[in-house]
Each structure stands twice: as C-alpha cells, then as structure tokens.
Amino acid sequence: xxxxxxxxxxxxxxxxxxxxxxxxxxxxxxxxxxxxxxxxxxxxxxxxxxxxxxxxxxxxxxxxxxxxxxxxxxxxxxxxxxxxxxxxxxxxxxxxxxxxxxxxxxxxxxxxxxxxxxxxxxxxxxxxxxxxxxxxxxxxxxxxxxxxxxxxxxxxxxxxxxxxxxxxxxxxxxxxxxxxxxxxxxxxxxxxxxxxxxxxxxxxxxxxxxxxxxxxxxxxxxxxxxxxxxxxxxxxxxxxxxxxxxxxxxxxxxxxxxxxxxxxxxxxxxxxxxxxxxxxxxxxxxxxxxxxxx
Amino acid sequence: xxxxxxxxxxxxxxxxxxxxxxxxxxxxxxxxxxxxxxxxxxxxxxxxxxxxxxxxxxxxxxxxxxxxxxxxxxxxxxxxxxxxxxxxxxxxxxxxxxxxxxxxxxxxxxxxxxxxxxxxxxxxxxxxxxxxxxxxxxxxxxxxxxxxxxxxxxxxxxxxxxxxxxxxxxxx
Lengths: 294, 172
Fold this sequence. Notes:
The complex is a heterodimer. Chain A is α+β, with helices and mostly antiparallel strands. Helix content of chain A is 36%, strand content 25%. Chain A has helices at 16-36, 41-51, 53-114, 116-122, 205-208, and strands at 125-133, 141-144, 157-160, 163-171, 176-180, 187-192, 198-202, 213-218, 230-233, 245-254, 261-267, 276-280. Chain A has a six-stranded antiparallel β-barrel. The longest helix of chain A has 62 residues, at 53-114. Chain A is globular, with a radius of gyration of 25 Å. Chain B has one domain: Arp2/3 complex 21 kDa subunit ARPC3 (Orthogonal Bundle). Chain B contains seven helices and no strands. Chain B is globular, with a radius of gyration of 17 Å. At the A-B interface, helix 1, helix 2, helix 3, strand 1 and helix 5 of A face helix 1, helix 2, helix 4, helix 5 and helix 6 of B.
C-alpha cells in the first residue's frame, strides 16, 4: 500500500522501509552519542532495572537450581565412592592440619611483612550475587544484584576468592554489569609483584577456553621475570586499585622486537564457577574524564 | 493490544532465559541465541514491519545490559528481522524447512557480523578458530532450541491471528 493513498477511516501506517530507515538513523545516532558519553545510561538503566531485573533474579535462582540438580545427578554415584575414600583421608588430614596451623601462624606474620594482606583488608567491600551472564558468546561479562541504591558506581573493582575478577562498567538502580578481566575487550595495567615490572594483561577469547589470559609489553631488561611469578594490578592504572592479585605467569617468551616479552597468565579466580563476588567500594582516586581504558 | 503484550512477554522471557538458565546449562561455554529465533520467526510469520520492530527491541535490551555502547545489537537484529520479513510471502505454517533454514542462516550471519565488527576490526584474524569454536556451535545449539521454541511461537501467533480475525469480523 502506498502511504499516499489513504482510505477514509483507515489508520495511517508508515511503510516498513521508511520505518527501517528511521530506526537505522536512530541507532547510528545512538551509537555515536553513547560511544563517547553515557547520557542515556541513567534513564534506560533505571527502566530496565525496574522491569527486567526482578525477573532475571527470580529466573537466575531457578537456573542455578537447575544447574545444581543436573550436576548432582551426574555426580551422585561418583560421590558415593569418593565419600568412602575421603573418610579415610580425613583422619590423615586432621593430623596434618595441626602441623599446618603452625605454618599458618608463620605465614600470617610473613604476609604482614609484605603488607599485601593489610591492604586487601583495609578496603571497604560489599558482597553481591551474580544474577545473569552475558547473552552472547563473544565477551565475558555478568550482572550482579546490587546497583547505585547500594552505593555502587562505575569503575569499582570486583574481586572473588582473593583475586581480581573485573570492574563495574555499567550501573542501574538494582543491578550492575561487571566486565571480567578474561573478556576479550578488557585490558588491565599490571605489574609483577617480585620485580615491579609493568605489563598489560588482556583477555582473549581464544585463550579463554584454556583458562588463560594473555599479557604483553613486559619490559624485563634484566631477564628476571620467571614462570610462576605473581602478577598484581599496578600502581599506575587509573581504574584498578594497586596490588590486587590477577594470577601467575604460566608461560613467557620474548617478542619479535627483542625488547618486550609476552605470554600467558593463569588467573587466580575460577571464572567458570563464580557465584558471589565482592565489590570494593573504594575507588582509585577519580581522574576527571581520563581516556577510557576498555 | 493483546499482541503487543504477548510479544513483550516473549521478548522478556527469552532474554531472561538466555542470560540465566541457558548460561548455567551452556555446553562448552556456548549459549544459544534466543533473540535471533524470536526476531526471525516473527519476521517471516508477520512480515517486515513486525520483524524489524521486534528485532530493534530485542537488540536494545541486549545493548542496555551487555553492550559497550547502545544501538549496535539493535541495528543488527533489526536488519535480520527486516530481511526475514521478505520471506513472509512464501511462508506456510505447515512447512518447517523454511523456518529452520532461515533461522540457521540468520544466526550464522549474526555471528559473522559480530565477528567482523567486533573482532576482525580489532585485529583478531584467526577466522577459522572463531568460526569453529563460536559461530558454528552457537548456530547448532540455536537450531536445537528452535525445535522447541518455534512451535510454541507459531501456536501462540496462530491463536492471536484467529482472535484478531474474529474481532475484525465483528466490527464489519
């Protein structure tokens, strides 16, 4: 039907190709505007937070429950056997435990010496539950069940199990999106703990299957960085707090330019089985509109 | 009005399922793309117009939650819905082959476009790796889910169409 020929009483409808054109234009403008700024974030995030997130949280519980049940069914026979074996092991371990208690006391003293533990402890932290994961297969991000109503803001760091998980990239009233450090679009400025050499840790979809993340641009002129070295977030990052554990170097090789080194890091966090995370509500001193590190 | 409400529930339900239940039940870390199933099946069942509008809203939902900027997925899914709408003239509800072919083609092209625009442009050149490990498994998983989801969408759409026809006759 041509839009010009309009019968009496018939509702005027825009032909679909014009609608397509208008929406294409709208999308392009949206992309251009939101690439640099986040003007639409607050209203849109509020709307979806009120409408979608309650469902998500409910169904997320259900999904978790389903996954747990299916895992239980698979494991139940295996567990029965394992249980017997473990009973025997417990006795041996109890004895070992007493020895380890002594070691732990020593370890705590040493930690205090390195001051790493103290720094972790002094940050203000909020616990949050993961409610949804990325709907696509390309990047790795997830949603948590707290938002600006709980005092969260963009760029806050997220940790779990003592290691760095990622940082908050978008906040709604009752949800927030965390982009994890294994995501292909994430780069973290880091340093080796022992030698304080700076390097860039970047997520990689290809290496994600092997449970690794890549690093590069390590200037190690003295040749002292080794496999097994601890990698933590660096002092010079503008988004990440210093000295959060990222992982351990698992392979290292010299680049073709003979100046820098690159390789793989085994992250300290098990990203496959994350259920709860801790959000550090202290932020690195905010620099006014610095260049985005994405 | 009822149609709008039903479609809204479908979009919301599929999105929530996709990022919660299916993420927990992912095979080899790959989750199916329910948004593509929804967009393209409404496209070839109802025509270009409905396809592109539903695609736009499905994409926008994805953008708000997981996109680094707004409009990217919306644009992608909108065009998928529009192009699927072109096939509404040769669509018959009894025939399952055309829907399956269209949905698998839509999901493959969605994956390809995502790869080209988000990965190739950032210098990730190993196309075969991404095709074998991400795009193809996603399409296969999607088609398996289609076998369950599509009949439901079809049935609901038929019910709605029958109802609309009845109401139209009443007014004449």
